[in-house]
Amino acid sequence: MIRVAVVGSSGYAGGELLRILLGHKEVQVTAVTSEKSAGQHIAFLFPHLGRLCNLTLEKLDPTELANKADLVFLAVPHKEAFTVAAKFVGVGVRVVDLSADLRFRDTRLYEEWYEVEHEQPGLAHMAVYGLTELYRDEIKRARAVGNPGCYPTGALLALAPLVKEGLVELDSIIVDSKSGVSGAGRTPGLTYHYPEANEGMMAYKIGTHRHTPEIEQELTNLAGSAVVVSFTPHLTPMNRGILTTAYAKLKEYKGPETLRKMYAKFYKDAFFVRVMGKGAYPNVNAVRGSNFCDIGLYSDLRTGRVVVTSAIDNLVKGAAGQAVQNMNVMCGFDETEGLKHLGMFP
Question: What is the pLDDT of residues 233-254, one digit of tens each?
Answer without folding.
Answer: 999 999 999 999 999 999 999 9
